[in-house]
Amino acid sequence: MAFELGTGEAVLTSEGRMAPKAGHAVGTRSWTFTKRVTTGQREALLGSSPAPSPQPAELGVAVEGADVLVRPGTAPYWIRHAPSDFTLDGNRNVESLAGTQVPFGGTLLELLSSGGQVTKSMPTKAGRTYTIRTTAPAALALFPKDLRDMLHRGTDEAAAPLPIDLVLRTDGQGRFTRASADLGALKAREWGSLRSLKGIRAELTISRHGAGAPKLPSAARQLPARDTVREIDELEPGACFDPHTGTDSNRLVVSRPCETKHGARILAQPEMTTTYPGADKARQQAETACDRAVPNSPAAWRAESAERDTHWFTWPTDKWDWNEHGAARATCYALTN
Predict the structure, then answer these.
(1) Which residue of 6, 117, 199, 276 is most buried, as measured by CB atoms within 10 A?
(2) Helix, strand, or coil here: 146?
């Protein structure tokens, strides 16, 4: 799936194996960017995180029935998300990986049930071509929630939905082998980082029909999301975590035992005002509170920092979660080696 962004291009490549009857899939999703794709555009497509960098450009994906497993970047573990976990902030993007028509979501096969007029070519020994005329709103189902929210169908709500043609090709035995669609009817919202979007193209190739079922990640490498994925201000000072969860959230982290390899450690959590002061003042309060609190944290914690005398901080970003976990607190942390 290629995103034409002004003078740059971002390409999402999904590869993997599916066993539709079993409801299993294993694969990867990886992004590549040309040099002129901006930092804001990369973060919009990859997803934000508590770290200075966005989510990793590569995500391992496995689907087992209703559960979705993700492996952020080169993490030594897979995070297993059950349907009850999908309500967490950011995890709604993980839910989209499960798919509705096939185990691996986000492919053009998701549009097969979107309805619309179907035309087909005459059959030959080489196969047949089908064209399904669907709509731009239906195509939004291909994207995770955070990206879907940045796009719209390109017309006002009173206008008829713009059409999108899904072209499917089958072989002589009637098996799907290729699919393609020009998703140019989808436009980016003017307020978002993707406002320079000029078009989206998608292509799918299917091969090795009848091959063996994919091998799922071993249970020993799996972490249940309900036990390990936390909002960062739920953790206590001294706790360790990894900042990349494979979701789009700068509030969610993976809680990790400090005796194992970890990406960050919380240094302090100073309290802030009881009433939400607004976005700008909230950030200023958090920065000031952390600058005061971090020097008083244990030296052993600060010594783990990948950059000497450097810390990062986060805070409740709006009034709705300001006092969600009791008194509003800033969270000050060091990224580790």
Answers:
(1) 276
(2) helix
**How far out from the chain centre does Cα 302 lie?**
31
**212: which residues sit within 8 A by CB, 6+ positions away?**
none
The DSSP 8-state label assigned to residue 85 in this structure reads G
Q: What's 78's DSSP letter?
A: E
Burial class (CB in 10 A: 0-12, 13-18, 19+), 288: middle
| Residue 143 per-residue DSSP state | S
Query: What mean pLDDT comes out for the span 152-167?
Result: 75
What pTM does this model have?
0.90
| pLDDT tops 60 at residue 157 | no
Going by C-alpha positions, the residue among 63, 93, 57 that lies closest to residue 78 is: 63
Query: Residue 165: what residue type?
Result: D
User: What are the Cα distances from residue 181, in Å, to 3, 129, 168, 210?
Assistant: 13, 13, 9, 26
